[in-house]
Amino acid sequence: MTELLNNREYKKEQLKKLLLRIHGGEDVNKLKEEFRQVLSGISPLEIPIIEQELVKEGISARDIAKMCDLHVELFREAVKGTDELEERDLPDGHPLKTLYLENKEIMKDAEMLNLYARTLATTKDKRMRGEILGVLEELVNDLKKVGFTHYNREEMLIFPYIERRGLTAIATVLWTKHDEIRFMIKRLAELLRKKDEMSWEEFLERFKEKAGEAAFALSDMVFRENNIFYPTLKALLSKGEWKAIRQQEDEIGYYKVNPPAWDPGEDVKPLHPWEINPELSVEELLSLPKEVQQALKGQPLEFDKSELKREGDIDLGTGYISVEELKAIFEALPVDVTFIDKDDRVRFFSPGERIFSRTKSVLGRPVQLCHPPKSVQIVNKILKAFKEGRKSEATFWLRIGEKYIYIKYVPLFDKEGTYLGTLEITMDIAPYKQIEDEKRLLDWRD
Amino acid sequence: MTELLNNREYKKEQLKKLLLRIHGGEDVNKLKEEFRQVLSGISPLEIPIIEQELVKEGISARDIAKMCDLHVELFREAVKGTDELEERDLPDGHPLKTLYLENKEIMKDAEMLNLYARTLATTKDKRMRGEILGVLEELVNDLKKVGFTHYNREEMLIFPYIERRGLTAIATVLWTKHDEIRFMIKRLAELLRKKDEMSWEEFLERFKEKAGEAAFALSDMVFRENNIFYPTLKALLSKGEWKAIRQQEDEIGYYKVNPPAWDPGEDVKPLHPWEINPELSVEELLSLPKEVQQALKGQPLEFDKSELKREGDIDLGTGYISVEELKAIFEALPVDVTFIDKDDRVRFFSPGERIFSRTKSVLGRPVQLCHPPKSVQIVNKILKAFKEGRKSEATFWLRIGEKYIYIKYVPLFDKEGTYLGTLEITMDIAPYKQIEDEKRLLDWRD
User: Fold this and answer.
1) B319 phi, psi to nearest 5 deg
2) Which end of chain B is more exposed for a tag (fewer CB within 10 A), N or C?
3) Does ipTM surpass 0.90 in this model?
4) Between A359, A399, A421, which is nearest B156 by CB?
5) B378 and A444 in contact by Cβ < 8 A?
6) Is the Cβ of A66 closer than 8 Å to some Cβ of chain B?
7) How far is it, in rounded angstroms, from Cα A28 to Cα A31?
């Protein structure tokens, strides 16, 4: 084992040296040969783990991503065709198969983007140029969706599983790259939109360059995922985990594929990230591919064993929360709520400073008795319309001093459509009417 | 008992007849004598119960209120001075004493209003008129607060207790009258504001008339409360009920009085309306004043015995609610929330259609891993500022298509000031930016 460890240590040292030399500005082509030699001794599954270690040693995820550009390119030859094989093994609708199939679409579109951009540059005919630009606009518009669908599913549904297992660096490196690609495509769309603001030559030069970069980054990511990320997932994730992923995928959506339903079996319990045992058992270890076994042996992985559900927590379906947290949430809401139950009785109101004050004495009181007698008839009409399903909201607004009060009543129903009660929501919308322009997270100053 | 019942039945019939005749347009002064005779046989505590019965028989609360104007006026002579006696019996800070003391202030201000309005009419000197108008403006401004404080406390804190006991008609009649008074004072304020839009003579005539009406209505209500409502309360409410009322009074506020703390004893449990036994026991019945005993004997009161707390309900401090209702409330909120706990882990997000979609896989995930790596540093800075108490919110806004997204982060703390976590609130403010003018409850159309 010491030998293996030393071997990995050696490889890591070599990779680190290369990385520093790339950073130092050395010619990448010159380094390619040395890099190929080092890589030949590393399995695809070992790379993310070494990256992980390098991140721990203080090298930024951004720098690692730069190194990856090079090693993935070199890697291409060695593992070419693997994706085809992997994909064929998987049943239709399996989330991993869907990812592979989407990558084929992405690869195709990336190649198209590059091809059309080059063709545009050599086309003299104005009508033809117009047509090509039309295709490019459509293509760029399509590619924007890669970020919302394919990447977003990975970031939101799949990364949590590898993060729990301590492999957070893989997630961070990929997400950094995803964001770079999102930005590149956004920039391309902007360039297309503003093409009339510059000369044709300027546009052409800039577009060809940026399209080439985006196409390369997209296909590079396909390669990275197919050959490093997906095999890692295949080796680590259980049926229950894939089942949970499949159950949530449709909410986010797909890139140009329509996966059928897939269920590994009714007896398989869907496993959410907080439900898995992130530590690999001996049996699991032995069933892993050799490369992963080797890599894991010398790896002091920081498993995430935190428990989500605490004693006394309320299971709200979308989270586990304590009564104390719940109270604080209702108090912090920028809206006041009051809930009357199916029998028209006040059952709950949000605590804290309110626009219309409420005291505990109102609990259990029929809503009809909580209003000036003059307006009871209308209250009853609204409730009748809600209960009979004729109305799904009633809204009102009025000025009181500096405040512009917006009041909304909504009927609540359970899953079977049974009336549960009505919620009164009150808020001051005056501050929102003042808001102009944008203020984004990255603009925040301490 | 049959005799007593018949006696009440007889009195009720007489009152009903009188009411119908007043309604029919008969001269009130003529009816006064007959009315006096009928009233002489009815105790102050019996009146609300008869009113109650009349309401049950289909006579509107509004009509009853009209009849009350007459009977209260007649009543004045018979029960004059009672309030002074009642008030002296009560300890300082007792909610009932506070009500009596406020009524002294209200009576004084109502008399002042009438006096100054009359003086204004006879004043020729312009400077003097200005001074009197100044006093009147201040007075009307003060009197506006009667509705927010004295009446509001009665409507919100005290009515629920008598409603539970089945005496809803008293509450409805008083509230109708309160609202009439609120409207009168509002109209007076408006008249003062718009005095330059009409001739002095016109203003004077209108103001004198309206001020007289308001002053009468205010003092009439004082009389009604002191002689009918408060004695009823004194006879029915227990120490625990007054304790619960006292605990909530400060939230609403007072009219020109500052009651000291009052506690009937540490051993006395505060009783909220839903916690009382609304049915009177034999012992309680026997300890009531004779008049109430008589009145209750023949009274088929509809006690409100509904239970507020159901099996499995969560006690949120300001209500008892089921998990199912809670889920439906979060789904219906016009804001999306995501809660990260004190360890920066996502613990809960509101379900349903959201601006930024969330899947269950995010639960338990450290918030730092839920953001594009580029923005992690800022997320950490914000959380640090929250945990150290340097910031109490961070807000952002951006346009996405038709939506104008407003994002707010707020740190949550428990009662001891310990950090519980941070809440992310997201909402689309575009619809609120479109809202103009007012739309009030009474404008609602089915």
Assistant:
1) 150, 165
2) N
3) no
4) A359
5) yes
6) no
7) 5
